[in-house]
Amino acid sequence: MGGVIARHLAGSRPAVRPSLAVVDPSPDILKLLKAEGIEGEPSLQVLMKKGKSPELVILCVKPAVFQKAESGISETLSRLPEGVLAVSVMAGVPLSHLRSRVPNLRWVRSMTNLALSAGKGMTLLAASPEVTHYEQTMIYSLFSGMGRALWLPEDSFDAATAIAGSGPGLLAIVAEAMADGGVREGLSRETATLLASWALLGTGALLTERGHLPELLKAKVASPSGTTIEGLAALERHGIRGALIEAVRAMAVRSREISRNA
User: Between the CA of residue 60 and those of 6, 93, 184, what are the distances in Å?
Assistant: First the structure.
């Protein structure tokens, strides 16, 4: 996610392009980014020694790495000036934990998904009270430039994460199963996967860009005695609706568990 965000910022219009520096301990990643015109340093300490103190930090690390004392991330961030704005892209780490670990920063919590890399990501946002409206607008613009962004109360994050964050994983299984069905009926794997993928893409566009409600879109496609209604009946016989509802519940419960243990 860090690379996706960095590349998006680097590709901004020259008039609004921010001064950007990436911190990553991997020499290979820094070399790759430098080839793309993105400057980087192996640590925040090195960056600060060069007189570059950030006005905005976007923290894109795995939660387990952040939690480890030996990683030194919290200690390093604590050396930044009081009041620097920081955005966490770590799943399951609540604002209360971020503020307790690094109280000198003003935090925004985000949750996004892999579709960010295709410009179709959905990003959830929640801010600490001290983050200003202007800053919230700036963060919203950043993430909505890579798809859509939505400010939510933090207590809605677990349920929303189950759909927005983990949803692509569920839909990937749907696409795979549809493609398997096509192969079973004689299509090549390539053709069946292409058709299933575009079915999902087209449905998403109708729901988001045309404003169709799912139930009304389903009714439009399912004509009397047609092929779609037969498929829907088969799905209902096998409990597809209940399975998806339970999957969202299971993911939301797991998200709450991760947040409690952060």
Answer: 11, 12, 42
Average pLDDT, the chain: 90
Alpha-carbon torsion 231, 236, 241, 243, what sign?
negative
CB 214 within 8 Å of CB 207: yes
Instruction: Give the CATH class of 165-260.
Output: mainly alpha
The CATH number assigned to the domain with range 2-156 reads 3.40.50.720
What ranges do the domains of the chain cover? Answer: 2-156, 165-260
Which of 128-163 are b and which e, b meaning 16 or more Cβ less than 10 Å from the residue's Cβ?
beebeeebeeebbebbeebbebbebebeebbbbbbb
Q: Which residue in 3, 60, 67, 55 sits closest to 29, CA to CA?
A: 3
Mean pLDDT by 10 residues, the chain (262 residues): 86 62 87 85 81 85 82 87 93 92 95 90 95 95 93 94 91 97 97 97 92 92 94 95 96 88 73
Q: Starting from the edge strand earliest in sequence, which strands make up the sheet with 85-88, in order?
A: 56-59, 85-88, 106-111, 121-127, 147-151
DSSP 58: E
Q: Write the CA distances from 171 to 195, 233, 245, integer angstroms.
A: 14, 20, 13
Instruction: List, in order, residues 6 or more apart from 212 with CB less than 8 Å away.
Output: 206, 220
Helices first, then strands: H and E counts in the chain:
13, 7
pTM of the predicted model as reported, rounded to 2 decimal places: 0.84
Q: Give per-residue pLDDT as tens, 94-151.
A: 999 999 999 999 999 999 988 998 889 999 999 999 999 999 999 999 999 999 999 9
